[in-house]
Design goal:
- The chain is of the alpha+beta class.
- It contains 7 helices and 7 strands; from the N terminus they run H-H-H-E-H-H-E-E-H-E-E-H-E-E.
- The strands form 2 sheets. It has a 5-stranded mixed sheet. Strands 1-3 form a two-stranded antiparallel ribbon.
- Strand 6 and strand 7 form a beta hairpin.
């Protein structure tokens, strides 16, 4: 057996050249793949940078659009108090020039002007809560009737001059838990809207009415008027942004009711609907008690 094994020829030719060629080709392939991976990483990084710049641009554009919207909304709501301030100042100047300005008149006009300024300041606070991360005070407890009475005080002169009856059918013991300023802004916009249509249409015995009902854990608030309602084809669009039905050059931006819906649904976590009754439009707001 030893003689047989020792006779085997171990000196066979090994194809070293072929092996080296295979190794060289494999190395070239690996280097090519690594290079392609490097190039792809460069491309991906470049695209990510482009995407970040694009996202930042979109963010800045949205930020500016939101800021412009907030400024537009504030300007829209400031028109009335600014008009009242202008009228008050003109009245003071006219009486001063005619020598008819007395202390009591001056005191009354200055108090009225200060009230308008306070409302404008509170309005800025309200819009800060709408468009910034400023915390909404959800823990405020107050009587619903108090905020409705405050709205009546704000529009007292308009209601008297236009002979509008302001009816409050709300129980004294109904307490609501939400941000007072935001709910006040909702009522202010709804009453402002009703006053406009009651005044622009031929309405006798003008009425704005607040009614409230409490059922279980919900409070339903109805804000109604007798201004002949809203056309049925317009009704589905009434809360849309920049949608206005005022066609008489009143400079309406069509954002009042949009803001109302925004406050109720996004900030106060409630619900708002609108419908027509026999006499006019009726807004129904549902909030947690």
């Amino acid at each position: 057996m030893i003689n047989e094994w020792s006779g085997i020829d171990h000196d066979k030719n090994i194809p070293w050249e072929l092996i080296l060629q295979i190794l060289f080709a494999f190395t070239v392939l690996i280097l090519f793949l690594l290079y392609r991976q490097y190039e792809l990483r460069k491309i991906v990084k470049k695209e990510i940078e482009k995407s970040r710049k694009k996202d930042n641009l979109i963010f800045q554009q949205n930020k500016m659009a939101s800021l412009g919207q907030m400024v537009g909304n504030i300007a829209h709501q400031w028109r009335q108090p600014l008009s009242e301030l202008s009228m008050s100042q003109n009245l003071i100047l006219a009486k001063l020039e005619n020598g008819k300005l007395n202390f009591e008149d001056l005191k009354y006009e200055l108090k009225d002007s200060q009230s308008s300024i306070d409302e404008m300041s509170k309005l800025i606070d309200t819009f800060e809560k709408l468009y910034t991360k400023r915390t909404v005070n959800e823990e405020m407890n107050f009587k619903l009737k108090d905020v409705v009475l405050e709205i009546k005080t704000i529009f007292e002169d308009d209601l008297r001059l236009m002979e509008i009856e302001y009816i409050i059918d709300i129980d004294d013991d109904i307490v609501i838990k939400c941000d007072f300023d935001l709910l006040k802004q909702v009522f202010l916009l709804l009453v402002q809207n009703s006053i406009y249509f009651l005044n622009s249409r031929d309405i006798k015995n003008k009425i704005i009415k607040f009614v409230s009902k409490k059922e279980n854990e919900e409070i339903s608030i109805y804000v109604c008027d007798n201004a002949k309602g809203v056309d049925n084809d317009i009704l589905p669009h009434i809360f849309e942004y920049n949608y206005s039905v005022r066609k008489d050059g009143s400079n309406s931006t069509g954002i009042g009711l949009y803001i109302v819906k925004l406050i109720i649904e996004e900030k106060l976590k409630g619900e708002i609907r609108v419908s027509n009754n026999k006499e006019g439009a009726c807004f129904m707001i549902t909030l947690a008690s």
